[in-house]
Specification:
With 259 residues, the protein is of the alpha/beta class. It has nine helices and eleven strands. The protein has helices at residues 40-46, 98-114, 126-130, 135-151, 166-173, 175-180, 185-200, 213-217, 239-249, and strands at residues 29-30, 34-38, 61-65, 67-68, 71-72, 82-86, 91-92, 119-123, 155-159, 209-211, 251-252. Helix 2 (98-114) runs parallel beside helix 4 (135-151) and helix 4 packs parallel to helix 7 (185-200).
Length: 259
C-alpha cells in the first residue's frame, strides 16, 4: 500500500543529518589496529588510508562483465555492461550485505583480537537498502555487530550510509528488480532515513563514535570537488570519506596521511 503523505519524503530530504561530526573520545590508534568492516564504499576509503596490515595486492580494481542467467547483460547499444569493482580488502568487500558483515565478524573476531585490533569501523547498509531489506533488518544486524566487538575489547565506530541516486537506481539501473519488489523511490529513501537516524542516536551508547558519512559526503548530485559520483552509488574518489573516518576513529596517519 502507498505510504501516508506525511511519510513520503522527497528524495534525500528525510535523511538530512542532525550533525556532521561529533568530537572523538577514542584513543588514537594506528591503521593496523583498525578493523574496517563494510562494502565497496568501505573498500574505497580504506584505499586512501595508510594500509597497515592490509596487503597492497588486495587493492586492485577489477572489471567483470555483468551476467544474468548465464548471459551477458547488454546496454542500449548492444554492448556488454562492464562493472568496475574492487577485490577483497580484509572485511570490506564489494556487494556485502550487513548480515554477511556480521557473519564475517563472527568468523574473524578472535583472530583480530589476537592481532591487537582496538577499533572496529562498521560501514554498511547501502546494499541492503538497494536490495529491498527493511530498515529493521539493517539495524538488527548492526545491533549484533557492535556488541560482538565490544565483548572482545574493541571500540566501535558506526558510520551512516551516504546518500545515493535512488531515483536513477529505481528508474534506470534496476527498474525490473524494483518493480517486482515494489521498491519505490519514496520507500527506499524512507528506509535510508530511518537507518541513518537510528545510527546517529547510537553515539555514546551502542557505538563509541558515530561518523555521519551522509552529512560528510553530501547529496549524490553535488558538484563539490572530491564528492562527485562515478555511478548511482559510488564515488570517483574517496579521500574525503577516508578523512572523515580517520577523524572519527582517531586513526594515526603518520607522514603519509590520506592519499
Amino acid at each position: 500500500p502507498p505510504l501516508p503523505a506525511s511519510s513520503q519524503p522527497q528524495p534525500h530530504q528525510a535523511a538530512q543529518a542532525e550533525t556532521s561530526e561529533r568530537p572523538t573520545n577514542l584513543p588514537e590508534v594506528a591503521m593496523e589496529e583498525v578493523w574496517p568492516v563494510g562494502d565497496s564504499l568501505s573498500v574505497g576509503y580504506v584505499q586512501r588510508l595508510p594500509m597497515g596490515h592490509i596487503p597492497e595486492s588486495s587493492c586492485k580494481i577489477v572489471e567483470k562483465i555483468r551476467m544474468r542467467r548465464g548471459k551477458p547483460v547488454l546496454d542500449k547499444n548492444g554492448n556488454p555492461i562492464i562493472d568496475k569493482g574492487y577485490t577483497k580488502i580484509d572485511s570490506a568487500v564489494s556487494g556485502k550485505l550487513t548480515v554477511t558483515m556480521y557473519k564475517d565478524m563472527l568468523e574473524k573476531i578472535k583472530e583480530k583480537k589476537a592481532r591487537g585490533v582496538k577499533t572496529v569501523v562498521i560501514s554498511g547498509g547501502i546494499n541492503d537498502v538497494g536490495s529491498g531489506r527493511t530498515a529493521e533488518h539493517i539495524t538488527t544486524q548492526l545491533n549484533r555487530m557492535a556488541p560482538l566487538a565490544r565483548d572482545n575489547g574493541m571500540n566501535v565506530v558506526l558510520c551512516t550510509i551516504p546518500s545515493f541516486n535512488i531515483s536513477k537506481y529505481v528508474e534506470e539501473d534496476q527498474p525490473r528488480f524494483c518493480a517486482e519488489r515494489s521498491l519505490t523511490i519514496a520507500l527506499l529513501d524512507l528506509r535510508l532515513s530511518i537507518v541513518n537516524n537510528w545510527i546517529r542516536k547510537q553515539a555514546g551508547g551502542l557505538a563509541d563514535q558515530v561518523v555521519d558519512l551522509y552529512a560528510e559526503m553530501g547529496n549524490y548530485d553535488t558538484t563539490e570537488q572530491g564528492l562527485q559520483r562515478s555511478d548511482s552509488i559510488h564515488f570517483k574518489g574517496y579521500t574525503k570519506m577516508a578523512q572523515a573516518v580517520a577523524r572519527g576513529a582517531n586513526i594515526r596517519l603518520g607522514d603519509r596521511g590520506v592519499a
